[in-house]
Amino acid sequence: MPERAVPSAYTGPGCPWCGAELEADRMIAGGQICPRCARPFLATPFFPPEPRVQVEALAAAGPEGAAPCARHAGNAAVANCSRCGVFMCALCRIEIDGKELCPSCFERLSAEGILSTAQNRYRDYRGMSLSVGVLGCLVYFLGLLTGPATLYLAYLGYKQRKQMNESGGIVSLVAAILLGLVQIGFGLFLIFAMVGLQ
Amino acid sequence: MNGPPPRTYLGSVRSWGDRANIYRTSEALEVDLIDHYEVRRRRVFFDEVQLVTLHETRAAGPLPWVYYLLASALILPALIIGSDSPIFRNTLLAIGAALVLTALAMALSPVWVVTAFGKRTRAQIRFRWREAKARSVYADVCRAAGEAQRTLAGRMRPSLEEPPPPPSELPLSDSDALPLPPA
Prior knowledge:
Strand order of the largest sheet of chain A: 1-2
Helix content of chain A: 25-40%
Largest sheet of chain A: 2 strands, antiparallel
Distance between the termini of chain B: 66 Å
Largest sheet of chain B: 4 strands, antiparallel
Shape of chain B: elongated
Shape of chain A: flat
Strand content of chain B: 25-35%
Strand content of chain A: 5-15%
Distance between the termini of chain A: 47 Å
Oligomer: heterodimer
Order of helices and strands of chain B: EEEEEHHEEH
Order of helices and strands of chain A: EEEEEEHEHHEH
Radius of gyration of chain A: 28 Å
């Protein structure tokens, strides 16, 4: 699939009307007027703290101190990788899905699709099942093909919904299942009608 | 291995080319951008939120135009049929008129938009007609962002050395003070 055009880079908080950059750190919570388009909006600014990682040097740990990090020999290790067991310092430690992973294991597991939190691309099976369901009703004479396809895609959508621990979105799946059943029913009706005519 | 955190559907944003569904989890707003049945997910973490806004607009979006097109597809054949089949013609006209009225109502309806700006991306949720729901989501996002950032700030604050405990008895005057030990 060809890569799509890269959208414009995100530049930070802006006016929700015209996108003009705003100095959020100078704003006071409440009604605002955009300095560029002069349109009103309600806003609440926040000042998120900059996350800092405290890394202990190996020398500071003392003669009976911690083991060295596998990647950064000068840093004291603070944890073991849950997958490969290697020692890792605070810079290397990645906490995800209840595990502590080293960068190599994180890359490998996220490439294999095992880390659900790291997944950021997947198929929209729910949308596909609805589309096949609607289109299948237009080509109703192929109901015995499109109907099972609709049901299978709806099943994949349901499984995906459970994997993502999602609440809501069941109406579209139910609609797709009903459309699939209607298509199968109509396909069977056509077959019986043709057999009956003969 | 722990599964993903539970997520709740908040709303969606539709454009001509794609649509985005927005979900809320315990630690972020998740934006699922759906383009040709492929979903790309972005997250706006609550501890990275810099600004949350709420405004009202009348942007119609693509759906009213889709309804207009559907109505045209029904009304034009109905006019061509003419009086050959009045029941069928009237049915098509009735459905077409309903679609046109729906499109007009959607085009004129107010849309409330909640936008959360993070450090790397933003999440926008639209609510047609539902001002109370939009305000509720706005307040919820502000509260979640405040709590997450307070928690993060608390974790990052360096631990202070505990001060020495105060003496159990304090002398009332110098004459009550205990004598100094011999040198």
